[in-house]
Design a protein that fits this description.
By secondary structure, this protein is of the alpha/beta class. The chain has a single domain, classed as Rossmann fold, CATH 3.40.50. The chain is built from seven helices and eleven strands. It is globular, with a radius of gyration of 16 Å.
């Protein structure tokens, strides 16, 4: 499928899929969305702790990189697992301007290491942040009570409704520890119903720029 680089409203880049009219990140601001959905409403709940994170849709590496930066501020040790069925190319990686837009030039080597590290192997990015990239389809995830936090950043329900099914959320529920949290930019009723069906308690929160609402789900 054709992919092209676009610049979102906050100046940060993302990948656009013309055939689906879908983006890897919000056109209203890739960085703003990541910080609001995954950091403010997810990672920040775990200040001062050691946690394991599962990302559904590693994609451009933006969420992983921002999590690395923010985890240092929040004093969080992170074991990060990013799942991606279709890794992006080196040319696409090189076209992402996240290091510049996040004023993180001192951490450019970290962003590069995240993408250069081998798939299916645990890689120590720093003493407090490890990364494992797994190339697999989401419906094959079979972790049991391993993660404290899930970033659910799959393509939207409009283009891939199968990724938002009860069966997928059952796998997410199984992968979380008790009191674990899943955050996502989505806020569709059908998504909420699937989450509740598998046992999640679901909160509707204010969404990132350009989106009215988002969900946070907790495994009780």
């Amino acid at each position: 499928m054709q992919r092209e680089i676009i610049t979102t409203s906050d100046g940060s880049t993302t990948i656009h899929l013309p055939e689906w009219n879908e983006n890897y990140h919000s056109k209203h601001g890739a960085i703003q969305e990541a910080k609001h959905v995954f950091i403010q409403n997810g990672l920040s709940l775990f200040t001062g702790k050691s946690i394991a994170i599962l990302e559904i849709g590693f994609g451009t590496g933006l969420n992983a990189f921002i999590t690395y930066l923010e985890s240092k501020k929040l004093n969080i040790d992170v074991d990060y697992v990013g799942v991606e069925a279709y890794p992006i190319s080196q040319d696409e990686i090189s076209s992402m301007n996240y290091v510049k837009e996040l004023n993180a030039n001192a951490e450019n080597a970290v962003f590069e290491k995240m993408h250069a590290s081998a798939w299916e192997e645990k890689f120590e990015i720093s003493k407090t942040f490890s990364l494992t990239k797994r190339q697999q389809f989401f419906n094959t995830i079979d972790d049991i009570e391993r993660f404290d936090l899930i970033y659910f950043d799959a393509f939207g329900y409009r283009v891939q409704p199968e990724l938002w099914s009860t069966a997928i959320f059952q796998r997410m529920y199984n992968a979380l520890k008790t009191n674990g949290v899943l955050v996502t930019y989505a806020a569709r009723g059908v998504v909420k119903r699937s989450m509740i069906e598998v046992g999640f308690t679901v909160e509707k929160l204010a969404g990132p720029p350009g989106k009215r609402e988002m969900f946070r789900a907790t495994k009780n």
